[in-house]
Amino acid sequence: MFFRGSLLHGNDIQIEHVCAIDPLGADEVCGRLPEMNRRADVASLVGSLRGLLPDARGLADLDMDDCLAAMRDIGIFLGSIRRHGHEPVGLVPEVGPLLVELGNRTDLVPRDIVHHYCTWNPLGERQRMYTGDAQENHLQNAVRIVFPHLRAALEMCHILRDVEPADPKFAVLADALDRELQPMVEAIKLVGEHVSPQFFARTLRPYFEDVEVDGRRYLGPAAAQVPLWLVDEAVWASDRGERNYLDFLDHSVPYSLPRWRELHTAWVGTSSLVTAVIDAYGDDHDAADRAAPTLVSSARALARVLRTMLVFRGRHLTIARQAYQEDLRLYPVGSGGASVDLLREIITLTRQNSQVTKGMSGLDLRARAAGAAT
Questions:
Q1: What is the CA radius of gyration of the chain?
Q2: Considering only 217-221, 255-259, 324-328, which range has the smallest mean pLDDT?
Q3: For residue 34, what are the domain limits?
Q4: What per-residue confidence (pLDDT) applies to 4?
């Protein structure tokens, strides 16, 4: 299937190419970056960053993929300098206009985001890491695992929103959406198994602090920038969210790829998939079941999607709660700006919408009856 978003920083061929190229000649110095960070050697970090910056002619020669790779390599030095207590643009003023130019050319914020740090990051000896620790590698790989499936899931949402719940295709597409979301559950499981809360909270989290560019502050790479929130928006949050979460969505949108910002603009404030199913049922669920039995299949399929999202959110909450406990954390909120309380609120809202869809399809009623019988 050809996705319209494939021309906007998203297709597998482009990802492979961006990973392969080194337009700034940064391979060698990026290989030494973890050691500079271990020594907190700010002078070497600053000198290395300054040495990477292209002149005007070199900048003019960069194409789109070159610009993505250049931001990837500059960005990991921005986060490193910031981690050691300094504003990188303050120490290397010439990088500021370059960041703005790279952001403009790629239609992204003037800062590296999670895609630069993970999906556009080469594997093996050329992999860019702040610490070089195997746990950091596991976190990056979790995003790499998720990205192609989430990209497909968002396009599935785009198609689903134009299909009536009474159409047999709705359940088929919703089940396909659920299959694309399953890898997120596996990825967060791997993070829980291989990344300790202590490592994330004390060692890695400081590298994701925000930096000032052109008078504004921009977040560093963050898992919250992987847009499961956009799946939420399609499935239930576009018209059934609450203010705290909607404010967080507004805050997250600028860190998304262009295609995903387009989808947000198209979906925000419109009827969600949950609402579409509710409206299709109307007030008389039994009559709706008899008139269009496919509605039951649609509601059940959407309930399965919401259950998968709940499983992921639950595992994420467990990890976040451990990493941000008061006696361990260095920061009160995650690198994407979300608090543990907000994660709990999202889970509550997701569960509420899950219960609505299960109730319409009879799953809740049958489960309660079976429980009563036993």
A1: 22
A2: 324-328
A3: 4-121
A4: 31
